[in-house]
Design a protein that fits this description.
- This protein has 14 helices and 24 strands.
- Helix 6 (163-173) runs parallel beside helix 7 (189-200), helix 8 runs parallel beside helix 12 and helix 10 runs parallel beside helix 12 (370-382).
- Strand 22 (364-366), helix 12 and strand 23 form a beta-alpha-beta unit.
- It is 31% helix and 25% strand.
- By secondary structure, it is α/β, with parallel strands linked by helices.
- Strands 22-23-1-24 form a four-stranded mixed beta sheet, covered by helices on one side. A four-stranded mixed beta sheet has the order 2-15-17-16. Strands 4-5-3-14 form a four-stranded mixed beta sheet, covered by helices on one side.
- It has helices at residues 22-31, 48-59, 85-88, 98-105, 124-132, 163-173, 189-200, 232-245, 260-268, 307-315, 334-340, 370-382, 393-396, 402-408, and strands at residues 3-7, 13-17, 38-42, 63-67, 70-74, 82-83, 107-111, 136-140, 143-147, 155-157, 179-183, 204-206, 212-216, 225-227, 248-252, 272-276, 279-283, 294-295, 320-324, 344-348, 351-355, 364-366, 386-390, 412-416.
- Bound molecules: uridine-diphosphate-2(N-acetylglucosaminyl) butyric acid (EPU).
- Uridine-diphosphate-2(N-acetylglucosaminyl) butyric acid binds next to helix 1, helix 5, helix 6 and helix 12.
Length: 421
């Protein structure tokens, strides 16, 4: 297991290129199962989660080629509809194969994802939606088994907005017979990317970018090509890296409309933001961050995937702030580790109360999930002395060579490989 060693206190300056969005790719890849033949995904990030999804699709029989951010998926050879526990336990997004396999082959057997570092993450909405579309569902030895001759369009109302359930039901319904309406559909940009891909494959979907999607099922789809959108969470993480080190960074390819809530909170915290086409400049030089409250919400609200990074920034802000996570109410495993670096944070239920401190001090820290690790790296960038972030395999799931990108901006950060830390 690798670790990062960070000598904090360097101001970050320069330009950083944003990679393709992990959470878009993880939906686009299974969507390629919906049509026989080769689909091509451009701007695909090189991430461990993408490699895990590739392995899963190969296990189903698909052929995969991945070079220079271009991912080719040939689904003509798919001959197996079983997603085993070994894959699903590594990555919950594996559950995305459920909808495409069921609608295309009439059968799928997918391991039920287990718990997660921050508590239960149910998939009841995915299953209720598939049932509405006519699927027979049973649970056997930890596997969900779904069957249907041909899915039938239906009206589906999600009690809660869910990215994964919206993606799964979208993929299932494009080949169903008749019309499906998804009410309270997720509007995250990654879902819009998926809708655009499905449209290119020949699907009929109305209401793109709204919370009511209407899908007119078709008999067949064809393979297609799509560009993956830039990763708004990676872009947001670099925005905070500039803010926390009082630097000045040009974020290339970080679409501002996908980051509105984060940019607006950064402005409230005193940062200067300029949007130049698809690029965003943040100037935080000589600016003491102000303490600003944040509550996470579904898009276009403040993303839960930026909560941990915001908390790192607020740890060194000028006063007192609160951070509330309304999406994942116990996603705070980074807090005890930030406290090891000298932060003053207390958590009650889903609220963190952060009293800004003048400085953080380096220490060994460890994390149990992707965004928590990002928050510890950010804190390490500003902490005095040396911070070691252990178990960075969590980071490698969702950030493409984060340490190299940070080093190009002037950070003193090294990866120490291959030992048991
Ligand atoms: N929920 C249910 N039932 C369901 C599904 C979700 O109650 O069947 C609840 C969840 O417990 C949560 C809320 O609905 O409270 C939203 O969950 P959602 O389904 O939207 O999350 P997800 O699809 O499992 C995706 C991202 C996450 C991101 C969330 C929220 C992917 C692969 N994952 O997860 O990304 O936090 O949306 O925006 O797209 C990350 O990248 O670090 C990450 C965790």
């Amino acid at each position: 297991m690798d670790k990062f060693v960070i000598h904090g206190g360097k101001e970050l300056n320069g330009t950083v290129e944003i990679s393709g969005a992990k959470n878009a790719t993880l939906a686009l890849m299974p969507a390629a199962l919906l049509a026989s033949g080769e689909s091509v995904l451009y701007n695909t990030p090189e991430l461990n989660d993408v490699f895990t999804m590739s392995k899963l699709l190969k296990q189903l029989g698909a052929e995969i080629q991945f070079e220079n951010q271009v991912l080719k998926i040939n689904s003509a050879t798919v001959n197996n509809q079983i997603a085993p526990y070994e894959h699903v336990k590594k990555m919950r997004a594996s559950v995305y194969v459920l909808g495409p396999l069921l609608t295309r082959y009439g059968f799928a057997k997918v391991s039920l994802p287990g718990g997660c570092a921050w508590g239960p993450r149910p998939i009841n909405l995915h299953l209720e939606g598939l049932k509405k579309l006519g699927a027979e569902i049973e649970l056997d030895e930890g596997y969900i088994i779904v069957k249907a001759k041909r899915l039938q369009g239906a009206k589906i109302n999600f009690d809660k907005s869910s990215v994964g359930a919206t993606g799964n039901i979208l993929m299932a319904s494009v080949l169903a017979k008749g019309t499906t309406v998804i009410n309270n559909a997720a509007m995250e940009p990654e879902i819009t990317n998926l809708v655009n891909f499905l449209l290119k494959m020949g699907a009929k979907i109305y209401g793109i970018n709204t919370s009511i999607l209407e899908i007119e099922g078709v008999d067949e789809l064809h393979p297609a090509e799509i560009e993956t959108i830039p990763d708004r969470i990676e872009a947001g993480t670099f925005l905070i890296a500039a803010a926390i080190t009082k630097g000045n960074i040009l974020i290339r390819g970080g679409i501002d409309a996908h980051l509105y809530a984060v940019l607006s909170k950064l402005e409230d915290a005193g940062m200067h933001i300029d949007v130049i086409g698809n690029d965003i400049r943040i100037d935080a030089q000589n600016i003491e961050p102000k303490s600003i409250d944040v509550s996470t919400g579904i898009f276009p609200g403040f993303p839960t995937d930026m909560q941990a990074q915001w908390l790192a920034l607020m740890s060194v802000a000028d006063s007192v702030s609160t951070v509330t996570d309304t999406i994942y109410t116990d996603r705070f495993s980074h807090v005890p580790e930030l406290i090891r670096l000298g932060a003053d944070i207390s958590v009650q239920e889903n609220n963190a109360l952060i009293k800004g401190v003048k400085k953080l001090k380096g220490a060994k820290v460890m994390s149990t999930d992707l965004r928590a690790s990002a928050s510890l790296v950010l804190a390490g960038l500003v902490a005095e002395g040396v911070t070691e972030v252990l178990r960075v395999y969590h980071l490698d799931r969702g950030y493409q060579r984060l340490e190299e990108k940070l080093r190009q901006l002037g950070a003193n950060i090294d990866r120490v490989a291959g030992q048991e830390f």
